[in-house]
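Box 3.1 A note on notation
Throughout this textbook, protein chains are presented in two layers. The first layer is the amino acid sequence; the second is a token string describing backbone geometry. Keep the layers aligned when reading.
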Amino acid sequence: MKPVDRSQPNTDPELIRQLNEAAAASSSVEAIFRLHPEHPKQVVMNPARAEEVTHRVIDRVKEQVGYDACRVNILPNLASFIVEAPVTFVRRLLEQPEIASAMANKRDYETNEK
């Protein structure tokens, strides 16, 4: 089995586009993050553990950037969470080793409808 590369999460190009756009406008971004399983044989992390790890990651980023996310919705059965936060917060989340992947919560066609 190929080892998991935890140095860089699999990041949706649409999320990167939205981060760049939001940085220019000083606005928030909504993103969905999936956690790495803790053991190679796991498909997904145990729900209780996923909730615990999510809180730990969010708290760590909060300490690093000096402010909290606008909104966090934890999906423990999917070992995922959704965050609405300023660009710096989301970019810092992408740097965390527990993050396996990230994608935009809203697609381009949704963000253009205003």
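The chain is about 40% helix and 25% strand. The domain at 10-108 is CATH 3.30.70 (Alpha-Beta Plaits).
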